[in-house]
Specification:
The chain is built from six helices and 13 strands. It is α+β, with helices and mostly antiparallel strands. Pfam families: GyrI-like.
């Protein structure tokens, strides 16, 4: 009996030591979200910017990333773990730790519903409301495999954070179109962007903002404009409806589709914009065609 008691005491002591000092989180909140991991990640980034903190979301993968929230006298770490269930549903588990009061929280939590727990639940309920409002204002339709268009075009090279892609485009919209009009260059279709490098870890996007044009001998020579040809190739295609700020939600949807159907793709999407955001109107009627080029067989 004495040996059993010592063993039990040792196990309880080890468990208590793990709980108080080694357990990585103080509290965990789990919920289901009607979105894929990429959409959840981008929405957390957008939601994070609405808070009284300038600490960016720390990316590890679309399935795991960390958010640091400063609340009163506390620095609280939210570790997001997102697991897709199917095309439009994910399981979300958020491990939450108060970096300054972790031990106190772990002591109090088993005995009462603490302010820390209530605050954590309230914070994630706020996020869920933010996410649902976002989802109500966008629509992504996967069309499957299609042919990427071929065109000659005039382009401006840009590099911005991913969420500022549309801002970069709009900042150059009038510049590029006015130069083409002034030089009587014939535009041959709606404007588009061609992603050159998509760096999720650094949250940087390099891309060309372009107008399709008819090639001629009188093209303007400007240091910020270059000319190139887009060649036809096979690609996965989607249609995105919503504000162009969030059109990258279609990128993630195409990547999920490619993964599910074992289709190798180049993560260099091309977006074609059919509406002028300066004209306003119902954003759900704005149309973007999004292409994810297939990898060419070697």
């Amino acid at each position: 009996m004495k040996r059993i008691s010592v063993t039990v005491l040792a196990l309880v002591s080890l468990l208590l030591f793990w709980y108080l000092f080694l357990k990585p989180q103080d509290y965990q909140v789990s919920f289901k979200a009607k979105a894929i991991p990429g959409t959840i990640y981008e929405t957390v980034k957008a939601w994070n910017k609405t808070m009284d903190t300038t600490i960016p979301v720390d990316y590890e993968s679309l399935n795991r990333f960390e958010q640091t929230i400063i609340s009163n006298d506390s620095v609280i770490l939210y570790e997001w773990n997102v697991t897709p269930i199917h095309d439009s549903l994910s399981q979300v588990k958020v491990n939450i730790k108060d970096l300054d009061h972790s031990l106190v929280n772990k002591i109090k939590i088993p005995f009462s519903d603490t302010d820390f727990e209530k605050g954590s639940r309230k914070t994630l309920l706020d996020f869920n409301e933010f996410l649902n409002e976002h989802l109500n204002n966008i629509k992504v339709t996967i069309l499957g495999e299609d042919e990427l268009f071929s065109t000659f075009c005039a382009c401006v090279s840009l590099e911005t954070p991913q969420a500022e892609k549309a801002s970069g485009m709009m900042a150059n919209y009038s510049f590029l179109s006015s130069i083409l009009v002034e030089n009587e260059v014939q535009v041959n279709g709606p404007p588009f962007i061609e992603v050159v490098d998509w760096n999720l870890e650094a949250d940087r996007l390099s891309y060309n903002f372009c107008y399709p044009i008819i090639r001629s001998e009188k093209l303007p020579n400007h240091p910020n404009i270059h000319y190139k040809r887009i060649f036809a190739k096979r690609a996965l295609k989607a249609v995105y409806n919503g504000n162009y700020v969030s059109s990258d939600r279609a990128w993630y949807a195409l990547l999920e589709y490619a993964k599910k159907n074992n289709v190798p793709v180049e993560e260099k999407p091309i977006e074609v914009f059919f509406n002028n955001p300066n004209m306003g109107g119902n954003e759900l009627l704005w149309k973007t065609e999004v292409y994810m080029p297939l990898k060419e067989s070697e």
